[in-house]
Write a structure and sequence with these properties.
Pfam families: MFS_1. It is found in: Membrane. Keywords: Membrane, Transmembrane, Transmembrane helix, Transport. The chain is built from 19 helices and four strands. It has about 550 residues and is mainly alpha-helical. The protein has two domains: about 60 residues, no CATH class; about 425 residues, MFS general substrate transporter like domains (Growth Hormone, Chain: A, Up-down Bundle). It has a four-stranded antiparallel β-sheet. Strand 2 and strand 3 form a beta hairpin. It is globular, with a radius of gyration of 26 Å.
Length: about 550
């Protein structure tokens, strides 16, 4: 494995030459699985020469996508899902306390609603910063920073007695918790292949649906029995119980840091499991082992931190600019906005029409919970089954432990074929729900529609979330931040106009408008199915061309 000059056109196909430090290890997350190990050349150095480093690209078609076992992946997904639920949970647990806060602080309900709007604005913007940290430095540092900010904000809110403090600290609370959703999606992409992604993404989507359904019930009980400050004491305790074991035991999964999980992260980014394994290996070495027992016995170059990309805070905006991603994010945002119109007006409308008490109003979210659980059970199997069908048609081997090459597979069609009928049904269900409320029919009718809306909304989230991660697997956290940005901004607008629109137009026409918007924009997904693969190939070629130009520029600077 000799050294080759960067300008030599006869460089062997399996080798790439780069000027770099001998201690860099770059995990190349392209398809098939590859590891780029940089090996210093053996040519003597002079004072005026920069040592060239040869990167031998080892194609490992038989290498599993992740070194984590199935049980370990299940635990990681569960922990990440619980973390991702804190942002929507903190949003909706606040709603039942609005009237109480208004009276306690001597401000209007509109003033308190302003804290919801500002919360959602920060909920859309903050993940761009979190994803930049997570994709470059790892998931663990981003988790620690996010939860530290979140816990500090909850402590401040629990002690706060002014409206100004409430407004500011709710923004800080949102900034800390909102990035956890992007970390959840990024973590899933780190360890799960496209062949099994439907199952895992569906589980994580429960964080965004179940939290808004369960949080108002808990928030209502706390605010009524213990006062509005108890809501934030509850969030502080809940967050602390989650954060301590996370910080101690949750492993780093970011592929630019640990590859498939077999590369040791930097010492400052290791959990107790890493450290205990390291101590065991050191102890084994002291007891006479000369062969080496694991990663810590490998050459230093295989343990070093990977080369970092430039910290890109605005990477999510770049992703939004991709036409195929823009279509997906727009339609997901429309679905999310429709869900918010239904959810934010739910308690008020059922109180006005059916005279339900606060406790019974909280129970109205249970049909949505049932719908989302049923969607998770059914939609995951459909997504994975359809993926397998199109993968086999494209001549790809379907292996849940290995990430296949999706460049020749119509992944857009494989995913959206499942979601399209449910998108249409969901829009129709919203329209029916609106007119059932308008006609003041028996309460059973609207409740059934709430379950149906919860089911179709969950299917929509699952389908588009899986596809977005498929398209941006290497920048999963950034892609999730872009999704969060669009969803939260549209959701903030929807929650602000929902009740005023219903007061002006009535439930029937307001929700008819919402349903029609979803139906009218549905053909955008047909366009995605038709030309999405072509756009994806062009985007990939553009990215590869830009990477080659960057490498050539780096070589020229180091020459």
């Amino acid at each position: 494995m000799g050294s080759h000059d960067a300008s030599d056109g006869n460089t062997p196909k399996n080798e790439i030459t780069s000027h770099a430090t001998p201690q860099e290890v770059e995990y190349n997350d392209s398809d098939p699985a590859q590891i780029d190990v940089e090996v210093p050349n053996k040519q003597p150095e002079t004072q005026n020469d920069t040592a060239a480093t040869t990167i031998e690209r080892i194609t490992t078609n038989d290498r599993p996508y992740s070194s984590f076992t199935t049980r370990q992946k299940a635990v990681i997904v569960l922990v990440a899902t619980l973390g991702g639920s804190f942002s929507p949970f903190s949003t909706f647990i606040y709603f039942p306390a609005i009237d109480t806060i208004s009276h306690a602080l001597g401000v209007s309900v509109s003033d308190v609603n302003l804290t919801i709007t500002t919360y959602m604005i920060f909920q859309g913007i903050s993940p761009s910063f979190t994803s930049a940290i997570a994709d470059d430095y790892g998931r663990r540092p981003a988790y620690v920073i996010g939860f530290t900010v979140y816990l500090a904000a909850n402590l401040g809110l629990a002690l706060n007695k002014t409206y100004a403090g409430l407004l500011v600290l709710r923004c800080v609370q949102s900034a800390g918790s909102s990035g956890l959703v992007t970390l959840m999606q990024g973590t899933i992409a780190d360890i799960v292949t496209s062949a099994e992604r439907g199952k895992y993404i569906a589980i994580t989507s429960l964080a965004g649906i179940l939290a808004p359904s369960l949080a108002p019930i808990i928030g209502g009980v706390l605010a009524q029995r213990l006062g509005w400050h108890s809501v934030f004491w509850f969030l502080l305790i809940l967050g602390g119980v989650y954060f301590v074991p996370l910080a101690l035991f949750f492993p780093e999964t970011c592929r630019s840091v640990v590859g498939d999980g077999s590369i040791e992260p930097p010492k400052w980014n290791r959990c107790l499991t890493n450290l205990s394994r390291q101590r065991k290996k050191v102890s084994d070495g002291e007891n006479g082992s000369e062969q080496g027992t694991g990663l810590d016995d490998k050459p230093e170059k295989e343990k070093a931190s990977p080369r970092r990309r430039k910290w890109d805070v605005f990477g999510s905006l770049t992703i939004v600019g991709d036409p195929e991603t823009a279509i997906l994010l727009l339609y997901m945002g429309i679905i999310y906005a429709g869900f918010y119109v239904v959810s934010t007006s739910l308690t008020v409308q059922f109180h006005n029409i059916y005279g339900l008490s606060s406790t019974l109003q909280g129970l109205l979210f249970i049909p949505q919970v049932v719908g989302t659980i049923l969607a998770t059970i059914t939609n995951t199997r459909l997504l994975d089954r359809n993926f397998k069908k199109y993968a086999l048609k494209a001549g790809l081997e379907v292996d849940r432990k290995k990430q296949g090459d999706l460049s020749k597979m119509p992944i857009e069609r494989a995913r959206l074929e499942i979601g399209m009928p449910f998108f249409a049904f969901g829009a129709v269900f919203i329209i029916i729900y609106g007119w059932l409320l308008e006609q003041r029919v028996n309460i059973a009718g609207p409740i059934i529609m709430l379950g149906a809306i919860g089911y179709t909304t969950m299917v929509g989230f699952n389908t588009i979330s899986v596809l977005i991660i498929d398209l941006h697997r290497k920048r999963a956290a950034t892609a999730s931040a872009a999704s969060n940005l669009v969803r939260c901004l549209l959701g903030a607008g929807a929650s602000a106009v929902a009740n005023p629109m219903i007061e002006a137009m009535g439930n029937g026409w307001t929700l008819t408008l919402v349903g029609l918007v979803e139906l009218v924009t549905l053909p955008l997904l047909v366009v995605m199915i038709k030309v999405g693969m072509e756009w994806r190939v062009k985007r990939r070629e553009k990215e590869e061309r830009r990477m080659r130009e960057d490498e050539e520029k780096e070589r020229a600077e180091n020459a």
